[in-house]
Amino acid sequence: MRVLRCATRSTIALFGASGVAAAVALLTVLACAGPASATSGSAPGSSAGRVIGRPVAAPIRNSATLRASIALNVTVSGHRGGGQEEPQNSLEAFGNALAEGVGEVEADTWITADGVGIIEHDEQFTAPRCSGPYLDQNVYTLTYAEVQQIQCDGQPIPTEDQLLQLLLDSTNTTTKLRLEAATYSGESPDLVRAWAKQVGDAVVAAHLIGRTIMQDFRWEGIAGFHDASPSLRVSALIVRPTTTAALQAKNLGAYDLSYNADYETPYLNEYLRSIGLVPTVYNVDPLLAEPGALTSAEQKTVIDGVERAVSAGAKVIIVNNPALVVSTRTGSSHCSLGWQNVADHALQPTIRSASAYTYRTAAPLPTYEVARLQVRETLHASEGMQLTPEGLATHAVTLHLLKNRDQIVQVGMAELNGVQIATSYPWAGITVTITGFYARSCS
Asked: Cα 414 from chain centroid?
């Protein structure tokens, strides 16, 4: 999957300033709760001839939210085959991901000058990751014979047909392939569609329609994939989605919308599901400089990114460390999430003002993943009011309240004792009510 080449695509704010839009801004709290991970489109470098296939370090266990993803039916997709664990986009990486039983493997296909589909992420083969002649030349200007003289991470460049045959030969008959038709900047819409059709034709010829999801940042490719077969499922790739873009993808026949996890929100994922698109996120975990075992701190970064994505409701998470994620979420204990109404727990539902700036619960809420608060302003209309869960300053969100209108706010991943609200005018008209929360149950 390539990100840098579409970095100039529209980064319009998710939604406008309507009453519904206000809720969207507030619901971004979960997606923005932690630091953004590294850009998944960055090209890693490594020394040629190094030892490959080093074992993944022992996974961090007992991550309740991650194991809860089993109950939430989240699919783990190995980005570039699992480019942090094995040489990216190599048959070795894809084979190991199949052996681990990940839900999907993800790959990128370029078309060479003589019409051969090859598996590679970047537009050019570059040192130090790659070695041989024809470096720093655009992939699509090279013949397949020239590509065969290049190695990346000490591995030969596989063809699309070889990758498809690997799936056919594997005893794993359930893992799906998420396959992108790569295109270059300035490529004509007709050529985008033609390349997509060629990549799709190979999948159809291999009788892997049911196990493959095609994808493209250039949405002219959706029609090309459907030229190959109307039955092919297609993912519309985008960096930062809007409701308009999501509807466009749906109308073009997309199966899912795959977008940068930095912009993930629970509301957006709910919206995608409501119009029949599968919420899929990439850039969940960083791709470090070289594949191999991760330190404990690096593992924690991976798991934190996955937990954020899962908590916000993603259906598919595209990760660079699929084996680590799979082994972590199948730890010794099992946890699940369930929505609990406040009334079911005999909590005092209304938070009343204990001081000029703070509303508090009568008692702490149980540990939860997401809590919903209902805020109402009866005296004023408010722009820019700040709400912060007590003790969690990084979770501050901005409220845009209309007089006598309820505003639903979601906060998450902690125990909630109270909330602080900052505003420039008297408070008499503000009330905050807890409406419910997702509770965690482990066994």
From this structure: 22
